[in-house]
Design a protein that fits this description.
Elements lengths: L1 H18 L1 H35 L10 E4 L8 H6 L3 E3 L1 H33 L14 H14 L1
Antiparallel strand pairs: 1-2
């Protein structure tokens, strides 16, 4: 019976842990992050790399590599060279990963700035009208009455 009680207590603690907002926020963040990664990968692969390749004279970073060992026919693509069994130093893939990182970091930086700006605007109180003194306070009136009673 005590094993069952300990097990149900642990399950209840686990439910409490999962139900907390931080865990749910983390799960949502991971899902959105995965979708965001796909968007950024498309941005880099489909839009930025072709522009950079155009500027550099049609160079495609993703297919740039050195053959460290093995026989690879000239002009063979990166995947074909890897399938051929050659040891490949794929610096183009690394350059592409660095570009992806810089773009992701920049976009996250912009998002954080926007979110912080929205938070500060939400926390900033609306313009509050200055306090207008409409007359003596209750304490002032009581002090005046006391003073008049003392005088006679």
């Amino acid at each position: 019976m005590s094993v069952f009680y300990a097990g149900s207590k642990m399950i209840n603690e686990f439910k409490d842990f999962i139900a907390k907002g931080n865990v749910m926020d983390l799960a949502v963040g991971i899902i959105i992050g995965a979708a965001f990664t796909a968007i950024v990968s498309s941005l880099v692969g489909d839009l930025i790399n072709p522009v950079i390749g155009l500027i550099l004279g049609g160079v495609d970073f993703t297919s740039m590599y050195f053959v460290l060992s093995g026989d690879v026919a000239p002009g063979l693509g990166l995947e074909a060279a890897r399938e051929n069994g050659a040891a490949i130093f794929a610096y183009g893939a690394f350059v592409t990963a660095c570009i992806n990182f810089l773009i992701i970091a920049f976009v996250v930086f912009i998002l954080v700035k926007v979110v912080n700006r929205l938070k500060s605007a939400a926390e900033k109180p609306d313009d509050v009208a200055p306090e207008v003194k409409t007359g003596p306070s209750e304490l002032d009136v009581l002090i005046e009455i006391r003073d008049q009673l003392k005088r006679g």
